[in-house]
Amino acid sequence: MRIEKSINRERITNAQFCARKLEQQYAWVLALGSDQGRRAIPLPDAYHSDGQWAAVANAAGTLLLVAGYDGRAVLWRLADDIQWVPELLSEPPAGAGNEAAILCAALDRSERYLVMGTRGGKLRLWRDEGEGFQEQSVLLENDNPIRAVAFSPDGQNLVVGDDNGFLWRWDMRQGAPEPRGWVSAHTGTLYTIAFSDDGHMVTGGSDGRVYVWLPGHFGPRERLMLEGSRDEVVAAIPSPSGKLVVAGDADGYLHLWELGLEKLVMRACEVMTRNLSWAEWERYVSKDSYECACPGLEPGAGVPPDLMGRHHGCGDDFAVKDTRIDPGQTP
């Protein structure tokens, strides 16, 4: 259903949008790439009766979804480069109450899939086949509110976080979402999920922890915890390159980490007691070579002897010795 009202606004060139819960129920569009400088533009407040908790935009800056605690979702499209036209995408069922409140939303980069998570624990999927978004299915009916949702940059994975700290995943490669189970990612609520362009995933939760997950891996052993925050982490996002992570906590502090590869290795070496085993190295790094990434530590188990010389980063102290015993020598 299309709302018979439009709003004239400038084109937002680099698609940087924001909506937050306010008593006045405004959604603010931040025009950071405008020729007129940075501007905050309020969208009309007539479409929501309660706070707006979720906002998502496409990369081109021509599409904006705003969803609220009232269970309504409004899709704004930029028409003719000057006019923002709203479309009512979703209304709450009669009598649903706060269970229909929309807490999070995500749009994949192909702009084909749109998902929204509700306070009642439902994950709802919309699909656009060229004629606008149509609701397809409910992917998850959970007992816990869904707080965070994100697509990986390659569009192959959809990940979701809930109030129990569970991280749910769907495989999107076959053209239809295929469930791939869940892992316990945080103790308490999982508030935020975001991806860098190279596929690193960042999550934050009420346990005060921020995790960086390896691209394409979703097991609890395949992540790095960032030290710093001591309060609930309500937002965390990596830079597009993945070299920086910024997080905001419930105490009002922002935390910034530099995560270039060298810094990640140094940080990991501070807590490790050995280098990667050969099985781990083959799985995560390479099947053709081996390096002692932490030069002061012993190589992991199973490394082929010819790969543990000094030129591979393994010091003489850990080079494989000839263990043959000469005749007459006492072992």
Could you characterize what this model shows?
- A five-stranded antiparallel β-sheet has the order 1-7-6-5-4, with no helix packed on it.
- By secondary structure, it is mainly beta.
- It has two domains: 7-270, YVTN repeat-like/Quinoprotein amine dehydrogenase (Methylamine Dehydrogenase, Chain H), CATH 2.130.10; 272-318, no CATH class.
- Helix content is 5%, strand content 39%.
- The model is unreliable at 1-24 and 316-331 (pLDDT under 50).
- The protein is built from two helices and 22 strands.
- The radius of gyration is 24 Å and the shape is elongated.
- The longest helix has 11 residues, at 261-271.
- The N and C termini lie far apart (86 Å).
- It has helices at 261-271, 278-284, and strands spanning 7-8, 27-31, 39-43, 52-57, 63-68, 73-79, 83-90, 102-107, 113-118, 122-128, 133-141, 146-151, 157-162, 166-171, 178-184, 190-195, 201-205, 210-213, 223-226, 233-238, 244-249, 254-258.
* Count of helix runs: 2
Distance between the first and last residues' Cα: 86 Å
CATH names the topology of the largest domain as Methylamine Dehydrogenase, Chain H
CATH architecture title of the largest domain? 7 Propeller
What is the assigned CATH homologous superfamily of the largest domain? YVTN repeat-like/Quinoprotein amine dehydrogenase
Alpha-carbon Rg, integer: 24 Å
- CATH class (first level) name of the largest domain: Mainly Beta
Shape: elongated
- Strand percentage lies at 35-45%
Helicity, as a percent range: under 10%
Rounded average pLDDT: 79
